[in-house]
Amino acid sequence: IPGIIVVFFTRQLATMLACGIPLVQALDALSSQPEHEGFERVLTEVTRKVSTGHAFSAVLPGYPRIFSRVFVTMVQVGEETGTLTVSLKRVAEWLERDEQIRRKAKASLSYPVFVLGLCLLLSLIVIYTVLPTFCTIFREMQTELPLITRVVMALTDLLQAPWVWLLTGLVGFFLHRRFQSLMARPSGAAWVYRVLKHIPLVGSILQHGTIARYCSAAGPLVASGMNLPRALRLAAGASGNPLLIQDADALVKTITEGATPTEHMAAHPDIYSPTLCHMLAAGEEASNSGDMYDRAGHFHQLEMESSVELLGAALEPLLLIFVSIAVALLILAIFLPLYGSLSQFG
Fold first, then answer.
1. Contact residues for 43 (Cβ-Cβ < 8 A; gap 6+)
2. What does 32-75 look like in DSSP terms, one character per residue?
3. In the prediction, which pLDDT does 177 show?
4. CB–CB of 88/67 below 8 Å?
5. Contact status, residue 211 vs residue 259, Cβ threshold 8 Å
6. CA dist., res. 344 & res. 181, Å (int)
7. What is the pLDDT of residues 103-119, one digit of tens each?
8. Torsions phi, psi for 201 (to 5 deg)
9. Neighbours of 29 (CB within 10 A)
10. Alpha-carbon distance 243 to 24, whole Å?
């Protein structure tokens, strides 16, 4: 279910509750909107359970792929404090910012993936339609072929063998399962994240993007009155950053021992950015941590968007150079033997 649909639902529900419409009637009205068949079915089930006496926050955990832990917790806080409308508005704002972060991160990879995929497709078409004819001609010439031509001919013969594709599929499946197994372990996910952090621009996008999600989740939770340790645990889980998730226990322990969050964050500059520490320190002095988390999240989101634009600007010439080199090598592999044969004929 697209995240934007959940954003629309949350905003509409908050608006209807603010107008005085009871929760069950509001859910029933929203469940009849055919925006997404799967989401409509989920809302129908939620409405039925709430109408039978279940609390809204008690029903939502049954759909973890749609309603995150942060969403459920904010609804629960709103029910307990009588501010459900305010909590839903804050959740909608957080979901909207989170969806923007996701779209920006995906947009940074869509263009290079499309170009590389198109190049691979065109290369396979050439290998299966054009190159076999030239390979036959070159073998009949019975002359010494350039190295690049021999390499292209060997690659053409190799890719036309069915066992190569079967072996490639098996190796790809094995590597995919191994990667899933690695990412399922907290230590493995943290190792992958540390490796990605050292890639220029990609590491910057990951760092700023996950901290932006962390702050965007922590801001509404702290502003709603939730105790800080619980809010930071939930925010770390919502960030998607395995380093933040691993460090959540240590951060909470530091807070329970009487230290401030910024003291712990400043001691771990590889996880928390200096800008985040400075902004939160100012928020702690002004007793306005919730608003400062929001400001820090907005700052890191802008930094991530800037890194995404730089990555796109850097990838375009690199991809152009890569495609140009591939085409030039293919042309040389075909025309060098032909040119040599014509020279001998002359």
1. 9, 27, 30, 31
2. T-TT-HHHHHHHHHHHHHHHTT--HHHHGGG-TTTS-HHHHHHH
3. 92
4. no
5. no
6. 59
7. 877 776 777 778 888 88
8. 70, -45
9. 15
10. 40
